[in-house]
Amino acid sequence: MQRSKHLAMMFLLGAVLVGGALGFTADRVWMKDASCNDPRASRALLSERLDLNDVARETVEFLSTLAVARKVELTSLMTQNTLPILGDRIQLQQVILNLVVNGIDAMKDTPGENRIISVRTSRVDKFATLSVSDRGSGIAEDKLKEIFEPFFTSKADGMGMGLPIARAIVDAHGGRLWAVNNADRGVTFFFTLTRLGSGPAADPATLEAATGPARSWPAGAA
To answer: In the chain, how many domains are there?
Structure first.
């Protein structure tokens, strides 16, 4: 089972690499993946005990080849705290992959020295949290929620399905996905999942309310 999931991730990354050369975007690849089209159908699979740090590290490793090919510096900062969650590894990796590829696409006009994508994990209260930050042109404030609507896209060759599917996957895991413009440049996407053993599930909307342009990470992150 574990090997098959790793192979699935490699296939998805390969499709993105080839797709980029052919003018396809990540959400076009996702449309081919039935497991992503309706994450709710996979609720029965959301029982695997995972460490979000491990999921993130593995995804960053897979994406390192893509980053080099696109002339982007891909950095990561993982908390030393374990982040135990229940979930589907490949679906969560697909979310991270989509956020990173979107960030790479957003920096196509960014000077080389500023083409940096940062992936970070943290423990905040009862949550396991992950962020993906880019240094692109950012998103208009009135579009920060609209970007998660199906078929909304700012890309000439986009289908507007990548972020809606990513949010559906996170929602199916009982979490939350949102975006915040950085104080200087670019945007940061966050998603949170309830940590195992942290007590009754908390409302992740409280973390979304704690982020903003002046503070791109919730207070109390560890």
So the answer is: 1
Task: Supply the CATH number for residue 171's domain.
Answer: 3.30.565.10
Q: What is the span of the domain harbouring residue 51? A: 2-209
Mean of pLDDT values over 144-167: 72
- Give me 186's structure tokens: 């670019």
Question: Are the C-beta atoms of residues 136 and 107 closer than 8 Å to each other?
Answer: yes
Is 140 among the domain residues? yes
Report yes or no on 24 lying in a domain: yes
Q: Residue 206: which pLDDT band, with cuts at 50, 70 and 90?
A: low
Tens digits of per-residue pLDDT, 20-57? 433 434 554 444 444 444 555 455 556 789 999 999 99
In whole angstroms, what is the distance from residue 191 CA to residue 59 CA?
A: 15
